[in-house]
Amino acid sequence: MRDVTILRSICFVHELGIPPKFIFDGNDHQATHFVFYDGDEPIGALRIRWFAGFAKYERTCFREKARNPFIIKRCIQDTFEHVARKGYTQVTTQSEPRLTKLWTKLFGFQILDEEPAYILGHDEPYLTVVGTLTPHAEPINLTSPSQVLLRVEGEWDRPSDFE
């Protein structure tokens, strides 16, 4: 969480002037967080919240030196494996118009035909985009071995210290 805080502070609070109360909220305590690194240095982050039948990507940010389509694509694609392993095939995010092409061109997401979301303090509306993932061959579910269900999030194939 330290690196998530650092990255969001740089990208959202410092660069864009977004108030911290919008960038850090109660959903941070019940979400899955990804931090992307270049060696030991954190370069990007996002959080995922889980809903009935879909995963929602939020607070996606990359440091300026990592804002390269190749880097972003590689990092975000790594998260799709995690989402699919949990049994989800739908991913959504709400995107500023200037970033919508990132989701549609790099990942094949589609813009939903619904009203854009207006957020207090933001001049531009946010557009909802949705992507479909290939189902995982071995999703975690009720028939997964009990020890797998006890393992650390995302490390389902690695025995824990308690096994």
TrEMBL record:
Residues 1-130 form the N-acetyltransferase domain. This is N-acetyltransferase domain-containing protein. One of its GO terms (molecular function) is acyltransferase activity, transferring groups other than amino-acyl groups. InterPro entries: Acyl_CoA_acyltransferase, GNAT_dom. It comes from Aureimonas ureilytica.
